[in-house]
Amino acid sequence: MLLADFGTSYCKFRELGGPAGAGQPYLLATKDLPKNLRVDLATGHNGKRFSDRYVNELTALARGGEDLIAAPDYVLLDCGSRDIKYVSYCHGKLADMGWNSECGASMGFTIELLEKYYNLDYGKLAVPERTFSITCGVLGMSHIFDAVTSGISEAEAVARFVKGIALNAYRFSGSPETLYLSGGLCDNPLFVGSFPCNIIPLGRFVLIKGLEKTAREHLSIAL
Amino acid sequence: MKQENPFAQLRPDSRVGIVGIPPLAVIGRLNSLGAQIYDLDEPQINTDMELTAPFLPRVYCAILRTALLNALHLELDMIVIDVGPGKCDCALHVSTVLQDMLRIPVIRTRNEDDVPFGHPLCETKMSLLEKLKRITAGVQSAAPHQPEKFPPCRPTAGFWGVPPRDFSLLTLFPDTTHIYGWTRCMENKTPADGELEEMFNAEVPTIFFAQSFCAKTALAKFLAAKHPHGLYLDVDVTCSSSTQAKIQAFLELSGVGHAAR
Ligand code: SF4
């Protein structure tokens, strides 16, 4: 059984229940997806195109969190290429959720783009003291251009931008003391270090975990 | 009402637009005159909302922008707009705009009707979309309800709020969703009954909905926080796919099957 999380920039897959048992989860760039690809259970942007069985992204995120997080009270935030979403649990039960595809638009995508454009390495950039006030990746870019024009280094300007995005995501998810983080930005030390709270990164495959839970518990598929 | 008898000029086939819920006496009068009633709060024509931009800010309640858009296009003989405690200040200001914009009488009413008609549709088993359609259509009639036709069902979910500008979001809920908030007041024909509006059922997961930019967003958010299993939601003109997913996920994760789409 092939599970897939179809993201805007990357798609995540995991094969379950094959002759060799469960395979390791893996990534493919969305632009390289085979044209006639079909999967057994899908989530994510565009996922409906590739499967007859679709789980919505918030549900997949929440179920992934239920599987991966032992604490009864938590906030889990997923930062994707084009949106941010979170679920919060209280006493082991869903308490709140949010999905920001407008103001959170293209955040993750812009962060990746800027690293390539300015030839930077987020692993080597320090978390800046100051930040830009940013609610959207696209609009936030003008802050970078203004800052660079005013003499601030490109690296410093981009770092302030990344910190601004992290702060925006933190506030969007309700400013918790501890935040479980999902998505590719878990691997970005500058982004993770920019949050003013304790961060527990869970990596890129949280929604895939949620699909596994769905297959197991809601579709009664033995895995 | 300012004029002595604003309805004297109406003919049996006069076209009257209503905004909000005019008092029952007014509806009864329009019915007895045989006037054709158009509910301007609901989309009546399929055209671009941008056409309201010269008259109302874009950041304004989508129900009232819709009312104005309807008023621009339907050739009406009169508008009756409720601006009392059962509606809002936004409607009051829109009545000023409408009066200036149109050459027909714009009659302001203050509906403080307090005779409860009951709310059988709010608690019966039926698609939420159909329930809301019937409740909103009921505004045009002064006839009593027929509760025997709509027996109550056991609720599995709750919808609290006003009838949304975009009815498509209602299709996501199960048929056993009970209705609360102003829509319940609407069916009860007591739109200014604040106590009834604040009621909810703590036993069932409930979505607390308000139109974006409406003062009721504060009440929706407040009640959602009080409810042990509530989710606050505001939507402007149309329900985005992420908002739809939010409703679906909330119902699904609360153990309530949502309607398949
Ligand atoms: S939704 Fe709110 S602002 Fe809009 S008409 Fe109704 S009460 Fe007024």
Summarize the structure in words:
The complex is a heterodimer of chains A (223) and B (261). Chain A is globular, with a radius of gyration of 18 Å. In chain A, strands 7-6-5-8-9 form a five-stranded mixed beta sheet, sandwiched between helices. Chain A is of the alpha/beta class and 223 residues long. Chain A starts with a strand and ends in a 5-residue tail after the last helix. Helix content of chain A is 33%, strand content 22%. In chain B, helix 7 links the parallel strand 7 and strand 8 (230-235). Chain B has two domains: 15-109, Rossmann fold, CATH 3.40.50; 121-253, no CATH class. Chain B starts with 14 loop residues before the first strand and ends in an 8-residue tail after the last helix. The model of chain B has no long low-confidence stretch (mean pLDDT 94). Chains A and B meet through helix 1 and strand 7 of A and helix 8 of B. The complex binds iron/sulfur cluster. Iron/sulfur cluster (SF4) binds at residues 61, 63-64, 87-88, 90-91, 162, 211, 214, 216 of chain B. Iron/sulfur cluster binds at residues 61, 63-64, 87-88, 90-91, 162, 211, 214, 216 of chain B.
Q: How does the SSE layout of this entry go?
A:
The complex is a heterodimer of chains A (223) and B (261).
Chain A (H helix, E strand, L loop, with lengths): L1 E5 L3 E6 L10 E4 L11 E3 L13 H12 L5 E6 L4 E7 L2 E8 L6 H11 L19 H13 L4 H19 L5 E5 L6 H5 L4 E6 L2 H13 L5
Parallel strand pairs in A: 1-4, 5-8, 8-9
Antiparallel strand pairs in A: 1-2, 2-3, 5-6, 6-7
Chain B lengths: L14 E5 L4 H10 L2 E4 L22 H12 L4 E5 L6 H13 L4 E4 L18 H10 L19 E4 L16 E4 L1 H7 L5 H5 L7 E6 L4 H11 L3 E6 L5 H13 L8
Parallel strand pairs in B: 1-2, 1-3, 3-4, 5-6, 5-7, 7-8
The complex binds iron/sulfur cluster.
The site of iron/sulfur cluster has 11 residues of chain B, from helix 2 and helix 3.
